[in-house]
């Protein structure tokens, strides 16, 4: 197998692979409030939180957290993955989003409205 054909094969395989998707919360340890969300890429969400911590930047995270980040600092927020979804290669992005929306709604029922951002 030539390098070119191997590269083409690896590229096609990468395009068929989806990153780990899931439902998460960002929990504020100071006031107990949580931001419930879902993402097609949990690793990206982890990276955003790490970036926000390293730069002390509220803009890296959801705008609903801004006032609490300015008040308490970004270090009081932690990421908790409630449910992960490893999509199959046959799933489209729209199908994954729909599955995540359903899972997020199921988890939303577990939280009282007054603690959600």
Outline:
With 117 residues, the chain is α+β, with helices and mostly antiparallel strands. The model has no long low-confidence stretch (mean pLDDT 91). The longest helix has 16 residues, at 93-108.
Describe the structure.
The chain is an alpha+beta fold. It has one domain: GIY-YIG endonuclease (3-Layer(aba) Sandwich). It is 44% helix and 20% strand. It has helices at 3-16, 42-55, 66-72, 93-108; strands at residues 21-28, 34-39, 77-85. A hairpin with a 5-residue loop joins strand 1 (21-28) and strand 2. It is flat. The model has no long low-confidence stretch (mean pLDDT 91).
What would the keywords be for this entry?
44% helix; 20% strand; alpha+beta; 117 residues; 3-stranded antiparallel sheet
**What are the low-pLDDT stretches, counting only 5+ consecutive residues below 50?**
none
Q: Report, as a whole number of angstroms, the end-to-end distance.
A: 54 Å
Largest sheet entry:
3 strands, antiparallel
Give the SSE string. HEEHHEH
Please state how the strands of the largest beta sheet are arranged side by side: 2-1-3
Number of self-contained structural domains: 1
Shape: flat
CATH architecture: 3-Layer(aba) Sandwich
CATH topology: GIY-YIG endonuclease
Helix content: 40-55%
Write the layout of secondary structure elements.
Elements: H1 3-16, E1 21-28, E2 34-39, H2 42-55, H3 66-72, E3 77-85, H4 93-108
Antiparallel strand pairs: 1-2, 1-3
């Amino acid at each position: 197998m030539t390098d070119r054909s191997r590269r083409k094969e690896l590229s096609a395989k990468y395009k068929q692979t989806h990153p780990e998707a899931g439902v998460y919360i960002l929990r504020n340890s100071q006031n107990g409030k949580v931001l419930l969300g879902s993402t097609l890429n949990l690793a990206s969400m982890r990276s955003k939180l790490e970036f926000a911590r390293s730069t002390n930047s509220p803009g890296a995270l959801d705008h609903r957290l801004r006032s609490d980040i300015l008040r308490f600092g970004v270090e009081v927020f932690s990421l908790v993955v409630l449910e992960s979804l490893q999509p199959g290669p046959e799933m489209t992005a729209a199908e994954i989003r729909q599955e995540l929306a359903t899972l997020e709604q199921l988890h939303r029922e577990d939280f009282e409205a007054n603690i959600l951002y």
